[in-house]
Design a protein that fits this description.
The structure is a homotetramer.
Chain A (H helix, E strand, L loop, with lengths): L5 E6 L4 H12 L3 E7 L6 H5 L4 E4 L3 H13 L3 E4 L6 H13 L4 E4 L5 H13 L5 E8 L5 E2 L2 H16 L11 E2 L5 E4 L2 E7 L5 E9 L2 E9 L6 H11 L4 E4 L10
Parallel strand pairs in A: 1-2, 1-3, 3-4, 4-5, 5-13, 6-10
Antiparallel strand pairs in A: 6-11, 9-10, 11-12
Helix pairs in contact in A: 1-7, 3-4, 5-6
GO molecular function, one term (chains A, B, C, D): 4-hydroxy-tetrahydrodipicolinate reductase
Keywords (chains A, B, C, D): Amino-acid biosynthesis, Cytoplasm, Diaminopimelate biosynthesis, Lysine biosynthesis, NAD, NADP, Oxidoreductase
Pathway (chains A, B, C, D): Amino-acid biosynthesis; L-lysine biosynthesis via DAP pathway; (S)-tetrahydrodipicolinate from L-aspartate: step 4/4
């Protein structure tokens, strides 16, 4: 057994994200990969492998059981799987209150750049007269606007409301049909679908004489790995449940 | 009387565009301003001033009479006034056929960058799988999408149809309400309204693995003056009616 | 005398920034302009006008005396004039320690978007492998890189050093001559000079598979006024010296 | 044997570009792949496979012999291999004069978007006061500026010189050390190296009050395949040597 303090079992190692995570952990000098856990493996194998941390990148049906198992056995958990609704989160909070030394990170988004862009947009939104969002994705995407854009607009809208900012000015009188996008929380969101693109978002903020633009481009799934590693390195010192990677970022400005 | 071959009367000299044109002509080393013609001046004053060229920046009600007067007196005309519908254009063509040495430029847009951007977008549109347009303007604008964006999309759509290009791929199944924009000639147009902006347009073209973006930013009315001067310098060597400044640009690539 | 609690004397009211500030204060519903103070006016007139706040937009030679006068008479000061070197700041800190209820804001930059962009760039710099800055200005600018770009790069470089981030990777072996820009604190800065532009800056941050871009565009001096008003509204509740408008922004994320 | 008129042998099929081309030809409904030709295969096999066209994606040492063989056997050739210096081109022209029905395309760049961007930049350069280029690449790139940026700047500079455009205005007096980029043909080129990026270029053109930006993003080698297929579809109707894919594009505007 090595001296690495972060001994990681990747759950869902056969999936696309999981296999990237296996490689990322292997290449991290301060971590050891102790299990690449697939669909047919049992949770007990995590224990026998001596894991101190798990990364859960499985499916909504199994993620809750995986995380409960980790918490009950004193293993830290970093979770990228979706499906954590209010009920599940409440049960997890309850369990964590019985294991106060345990730590869990549930992160809907591991791309540091995207998490930062959303945080910055929410923070800046109150200081400008106008705010809109343009999200641009590959044309296979079935939902418009993107979930990230909706969440960004909701956070921006809430920040503007809390600071009593007037609605973005808009004199539009005539309009044609067929636009792709939406108005979310008072923020106009534009949805571009273009072959060649992956996942991109630009927040535009304007006041008289100036514009602030915050843009994030995701070119590749590799962009999630620095966030996974940051989660693994931090979860051991943050007891309880953290929801969103931004909770681990040093964003006090 | 100077030796300048281009002796210019600016009609509508009291307006915003007109007063910019007066300054631009004054500062052009190869031109002479011979009349800054206002609402109360008569057309005969253009003759007595010895004008060889007029710039018409008046109002739809007077532009046709002004241009007819110029053509009938052997004066070249550069026209930025709107209101030239099919009937007026037909009457002008008829008049020009009787004055074959005369030249008239009617230019809906004098911003060279905008004219070039539209021409390039129309030319490139057939070579990409996907095509969309984002136009961004100040929030006092009452129409959305902008006229320039609609015209750009129409030209792009026509070019794609002529080249038998399939519609831009789009798997969108769910959509929210309230987007600002339109689908024009099969091209999605997104309309951003943001305090601080003036008039901006970005054409996005995508195929597998690549994107071409053509963006024009108008910051100031000053951007129209190089186009006005180019029109004045060229109209004397282009008999007949030219519609659109692109007709004077050297765009054979 | 009105009931406005913020009664403002603008010093340097005849200058370009000063005259904008005069208008901005006049238009602010919660403020009253009590003096538009020019070169030939005496500081006593500020007292007789009943000012509670001054905005100093004068020249380096007079700003220190103006601010001292304000502090000594219980008047809050918002300062945009340059020339506050270490000696001056030390003398001001000393004076303020004798007037603990007084408040002074010295702000090298009143554009909220620019201040936010710099703060965000400094905060994000530690989370990415690569970081560069592109600044774009009108071609009359004599210094390259711009002062804002140098300061942004210094803050980013310091943040990366504090977090032990490796230098941005760069395999460049061959290079040509004549580039405009610099390497500042390990950050490459590129200086574009283009007719038509005003003042623009884009910070680019990249890691495997993703890019975060933070761009600020200044189109007009009007962009400074929201920052001046924010300073006036806040300085009364922030005793002592605040250096930089970011000190007044709610940037805890 | 199928009825496809375009029967393609891919030379260099084992390389990265070659294997992409093999797939692209297989998927093209109007083509048939008749040979995926590797290092150990003989040129005679191209004949026995009944190829009407070759795509040469080999190495500088073998490309000339491959193309000569094609021309001598009445096979059209689309060539992406580098190494075609003046001597080789002259010998090829001589050979083609003896085979007037043959057609060869030598294309240093198959990305349609990049070819269009360069053509548009060269065309527009004469109409603006200022012109600069920003190229952005992954940090493993050893040369700065990129070859494409140097060629773009040279074409823009030549167009400006031919049209007697004054140098881009630049008042820079002070400068720091260490910029990455160059001045090429009077055009400033800025070289950004950023982890996460692939190959990107933005041409900026400015005049009073306006800016035209032409940007190309290459995300993936897949972007070359539409250009390869366009070459194959066109070479049969263009006898002689065409240098550069732009020769096949319908760029008369």
């Amino acid at each position: 057994m090595s001296n690495a303090e972060i001994r990681v079992a990747v759950l869902g190692a056969g999936g696309r994200m999981g296999s990237e995570a296996v490689e990322a952990v292997k290449n991290a000098p301060d971590m050891e990969l102790v299990a690449a856990h697939g669909r047919s493996d049992t949770l007990e194998e995590i224990l026998s492998a001596g894991a101190t941390h798990i990364v859960d990148l499985t499916v909504p049906d199994s993620t809750e059981a995986n995380v409960r198992f980790a918490v009950e056995h004193g293993i830290y958990a970093v979770v990228g799987t979706t499906g954590w609704d209010a009920d599940r989160l409440e049960r997890l909070e309850q369990l964590l209150s019985e294991h106060p030394e345990s730590g869990v990170l549930i992160a809907p988004n591991f791309a540091l750049g995207s998490v930062l862009a959303t945080a910055f947009a929410a923070k800046a939104a109150q200081y400008f007269e106008s705010a809109e969002v343009i999200e641009l994705h590959h044309p296979q995407k079935v939902d418009a606007p993107s979930g990230t854009a909706v969440r960004t607009a909701e956070l921006m809208g809430a920040a503007r409301e809390a600071a009593d900012v007037a609605p973005s000015p808009d004199a539009t009188e005539t309009a044609l049909e067929g636009a792709r996008g939406a108005e979310v929380a008072g923020i106009h969101v534009h949805s571009v679908r273009l072959r060649g693109l992956v996942a991109h978002q630009e927040v535009l903020l304007g006041s008289a004489g100036e514009q602030l633009s915050i843009r994030h481009d995701s070119f590749d799934r590799a962009s999630f790995m620095p966030g996974v590693l940051l989660g693994l390195r931090t979860v051991g010192s943050r007891p309880g449940l953290t929801h969103g990677l931004d909770g681990y970022l040093d964003l006090g400005l």
